[in-house]
Amino acid sequence: CETCSKEEAKYRCPRCMKYSCSLLCVKKHKLALSCNGVRDKTAFVSVNEFTDLNLLSDYRFLEDVGRTADAAARHCIVHSPATKRLLYCLRNKARGCNIELKTLPVGFTKRRENSTTFNSMENKFYWHLKLIFPHCNAEYTLKGVPDDKTLVDILKPYIDPVESDPVVCQRLKIYTTSPQSDVRILMKIENRNRNSVRYNELDASRSLLDNLKGKVIIEYPTLFVVLKTLKNDMVILGQDGSEPAENSDSESSSLSSAEEGEIRDSS
């Protein structure tokens, strides 16, 4: 057992391939690794290891995608005038703030979970926001984040040694014990080729709205919180020596990579 290292393993997780001896250890490993225990149908398999079973799995996966897409196209909400007006309003208000907000069809995971709203009385966005801490394999979803809130204040409940929740602080220990000057907040640049992934570095002292200006957002912002010394292959645009610190080229390309990932999620 890779959890307790005491008993003989009886089970193997379909997702991360970790061996466990009991239901208790299975639950512990899922909690520690944020593992859902569901086999990744899109995991890479080399040609040498590809079998008839993999082919059958891919075939069934494509069938599931087809059924999901068809069900989404038939959904009554797709044709709802109220839904269309709401999405048009969000995109229009975002455009007025120099933000290119793109929405996905009904049935996509990000479309279903997005809770972003715009308050006309306050003239303010309340964003659905996802925080990812890759060094700890942790992610958190925030709802109703006002656009005038600074990134520093948004992160305080997570990585501030004094103000963060004790349970969260323990899970994100590598962040809370590191100097705050080492923390970097990145946002992936959308609509780029998968072999050319780049990130924009955000200014933690400025508001969420200021950081989103001039960016392309698909449904809602996803922020990656990384440490300067451990960010590995997360290349920041303008710091790789080959491209300027702009995302103008990303705005002219298609949504293919984002849509493909969301289709897989929605299945």
From TrEMBL:
| Presence of the UniProt keyword Glycoprotein in the record | no
Please verify whether the record's keywords include Zinc-finger: yes
Annotated spans, Disordered = 239-267
HIT-type domain segment(s) = 1-35
Q: Name one Pfam family in it.
A: BCD1
Domain of life assignment: Eukaryota
Q: Which Gene Ontology molecular function entries are recorded, alphabetically? A: zinc ion binding
Gene Ontology biological-process entries: box C/D snoRNP assembly; maturation of LSU-rRNA from tricistronic rRNA transcript (SSU-rRNA, 5.8S rRNA, LSU-rRNA); snoRNA localization
Q: Which UniProt keywords apply?
A: Isopeptide bond, Metal-binding, Phosphoprotein, Ribosome biogenesis, Ubl conjugation, Zinc, Zinc-finger
Q: Which GO terms describe its cellular component?
A: nucleus; pre-snoRNP complex
Q: Which InterPro entries match?
A: BCD1, BCD1_alpha/beta, Znf_HIT
Low complexity biased stretches? 242-258
Q: Which Gene3D superfamilies match?
A: 3.30.60.190
* Family statement drawn from the similarity comment of this UniProt entry: Belongs to the BCD1 family.
Q: What does this protein do?
A: Required for box C/D snoRNAs accumulation involved in snoRNA processing, snoRNA transport to the nucleolus and ribosome biogenesis.
Oligomeric state and interaction partners are given as: Interacts with FBL, SNU13, NOP58, NUFIP1, RUVBL1, RUVBL2 and TAF9. Interacts (via HIT-type zinc finger) with the RUVBL1/RUVBL2 complex in the presence of ADP.
Task: Tell me what this protein is called.
Answer: Box C/D snoRNA protein 1
Organism, by scientific name, is: Leucopsar rothschildi
